[in-house]
């Protein structure tokens, strides 16, 4: 038994079966939802079972003795078809629901994406505006700096070009002139167009050029950063002038040498003045030495006649005392006093001359110890006097031991003399604190003096008190000043009438 048209039917069946299998595979590939995939997995057995039953219904030959229950087979086919239809319907409904859900998600995603895009555009505009503003400000600031730099360079150029006391020029790496100011034209005599591009060695004497001094100076400036020298230089007219020269290496930010600046100052007049001062000082020193020698010689020669005057006066007083009237005795005593005073004055002058010729030998001198020795000698000369000595301890100075001893003897001797009428005399040696330099002083509580006459204190033979008040020759303070000056120091006094005097000195 066979179905009508079984040949064409079987062909269409085979073709439909292939299409159905392909569609099922395509749907399986398109369905991404897990539940849909599960439904497809359940649908595959149903389709296979339905296809099997359908195949059984179209078989041309059945095996002998087997009967087919057509009704049962048709019922099974319908049941399979209903199940397949139900599954497909569920898939369609689920797919519709998923489509709606995905559409909503897509709309939300689209809205979110639009918001993100809008926000990104706004942010980009803000960032672009901020960047533009920052760039504008930076360009504005840079423009201001460039304008200030230009003005500064212009001011510097005007300043350099206007300087006439200094020759200021720029040199390239080889030493050729690239810039020239008015001062250079005045000092060296060249105009800019005559010297620009020429080597700076033309300013040096021929002997310096032969020794390659210009090249050595540039090399030293490059190595050390700066080179300074004083020497003879040559003007355009060939005349020489004494110059102070400073050559400075010019480097860029990376440290690479770009050239040199050269500043020249004409010191010819100053050099002439210095040489004239040296010449005059030498003449003055020679005159002082000659005067000291003359003073020493005269003073030394005067001692013998004075001794004769004093001796003969004393002989008259002793040998002819009964024959000389009282008035004559008085005159002879005044002659002796004058002779003794003259002898003391000559002795002081000799000391002053010896101090001028004395060669300074510097050592550490215990000034406190020396002052205590002088105080002991003064006290021994008049043991009945009550004088309080206040001598600071530990005063050590650098100087000539013998000369500093004479200084103390004169200053402390003056203080001893001028406090002779004080019931409680006080003499102090100390150092003034809180000063940038070490200032020593000797102070007394004597009668003092008027500061209007302080300028006469250190002059030879100048005295502020009469001999009847306080004896002296007026040479002691001049001697002290000379000792201080020979130590490279200075001395001055402060006093008030009736309030004592203080002599300050710096060694």
Summed up, what is this model?
With about 500 residues, this protein is of the alpha+beta class. It has helices at about 5-30, 35-55, 70-160, 180-190, 190-195, 205-210, 215-225, 270-320, 325-355, 365-380, 400-420, 475-485, and strands at about 165-170, 175-180, 225-235, 240-250, 255-265, 360-365, 385-390, 395-400, 425-430, 440-445, 490-495, 500-505.
Relevant terms:
single chain, 507 residues, disordered N terminus, Beta-Lactamase, five-stranded mixed sheet, Helix Hairpins, five-stranded antiparallel sheet, alpha+beta, 4 domains, 12 strands
The biggest beta sheet is recorded as: 5 strands, antiparallel
Separate helix tally: 12
CATH topology of the largest domain: Heat Shock Protein 90
Please count the beta strands (DSSP E, at least 2 residues each): 12
Contiguous runs where pLDDT drops below 50 for at least 5 residues:
1-5, 60-68
CATH structural class of the largest domain: Alpha Beta
- Computed structural class: alpha+beta
How many structural domains are formed by the residues? 4
**Overall average pLDDT:** 79
User: What would CATH call the architecture of the largest domain?
Assistant: 2-Layer Sandwich
What coarse outline follows from CA principal-axis ratios? elongated
Q: Kindly, what is the distance between the CA atoms of the first and last residues, rounded to a whole number of angstroms?
A: 155 Å
Query: What spatial order of strands do you see in the largest sheet?
Result: 2-1-5-4-3
Rg, Cα atoms, Å? 62 Å
What is the CATH homology-level superfamily of the largest domain? Histidine kinase-like ATPase, C-terminal domain
Sheet-strand content, in percent, reads: 15-25%
What is the H/E order?
Answer: HHHEEHHHHEEEHHEHEEHEEHEE
């Amino acid at each position: 038994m066979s179905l009508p048209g079984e040949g064409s039917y079987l062909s269409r069946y085979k073709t439909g079966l292939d299409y159905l299998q392909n569609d099922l595979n395509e749907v399986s590939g398109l369905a991404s939802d897990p539940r849909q995939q599960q439904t497809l997995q359940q649908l595959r057995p149903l389709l296979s079972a339905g296809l099997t039953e359908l195949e059984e219904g179209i078989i041309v030959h059945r095996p002998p003795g087997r009967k087919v229950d057509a009704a049962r087979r048709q019922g099974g086919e319908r049941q399979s078809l209903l199940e397949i239809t139900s599954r497909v319907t569920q898939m369609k409904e689920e797919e519709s629901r998923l489509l709606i859900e995905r559409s909503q998600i897509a709309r939300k995603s689209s809205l979110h994406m639009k918001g993100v895009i809008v926000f990104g555009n706004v942010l980009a505009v803000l960032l672009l505006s901020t960047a533009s503003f920052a760039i504008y400000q930076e360009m504005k600031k840079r423009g201001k700096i460039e304008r200030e730099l230009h003005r500064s360079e212009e001011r510097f150029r005007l300043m350099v070009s206007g300087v006439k006391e200094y020759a200021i020029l720029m040199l390239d790496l080889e030493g050729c002139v690239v810039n020239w100011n008015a001062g250079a034209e005045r000092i060296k005599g060249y105009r800019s167009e005559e010297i620009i591009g020429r080597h700076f060695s033309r300013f040096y004497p021929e002997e310096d050029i032969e020794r390659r001094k210009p090249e050595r100076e540039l090399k030293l400036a490059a190595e050390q950063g700066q080179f300074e020298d004083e020497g003879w230089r040559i003007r355009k007219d060939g005349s020489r002038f004494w110059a102070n020269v400073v050559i400075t290496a010019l480097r860029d930010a990376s440290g690479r040498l770009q050239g040199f600046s050269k500043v020249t100052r004409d010191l010819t007049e100053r050099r002439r003045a210095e040489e004239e001062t040296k010449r005059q000082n030498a003449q003055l020193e020679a005159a002082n030495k000659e005067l000291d020698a003359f003073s020493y010689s005269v003073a030394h020669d005067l001692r013998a006649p004075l001794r004769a005057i004093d001796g003969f006066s004393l002989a008259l007083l002793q040998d002819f005392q009964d024959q000389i009237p009282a008035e004559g005795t008085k005159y002879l005593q005044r002659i002796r006093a004058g002779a003794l005073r003259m002898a003391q004055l000559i002795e002081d002058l000799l000391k002053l001359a010896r101090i001028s010729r004395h060669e300074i030998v510097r050592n550490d001198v215990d000034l406190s110890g020396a002052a205590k020795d002088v105080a002991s000698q003064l006290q021994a000369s008049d043991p009945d006097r009550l004088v309080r000595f206040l001598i600071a301890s530990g005063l050590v100075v650098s100087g000539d031991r013998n000369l500093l001893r004479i200084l103390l003897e004169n200053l402390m001797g003056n203080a001893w003399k001028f406090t002779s009428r004080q019931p409680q005399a006080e003499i102090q040696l100390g150092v003034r604190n809180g000063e940038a330099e070490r200032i020593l002083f000797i102070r007394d509580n004597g009668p003092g003096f008027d500061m209007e006459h302080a300028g006469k204190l250190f002059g030879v033979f100048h005295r502020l008190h009469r001999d009847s008040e306080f004896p002296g020759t007026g040479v002691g303070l001049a001697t002290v000043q000379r000792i201080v000056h020979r130590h490279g120091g200075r001395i001055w006094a402060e006093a008030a009438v009736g309030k004592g005097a203080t002599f300050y000195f710096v060694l």
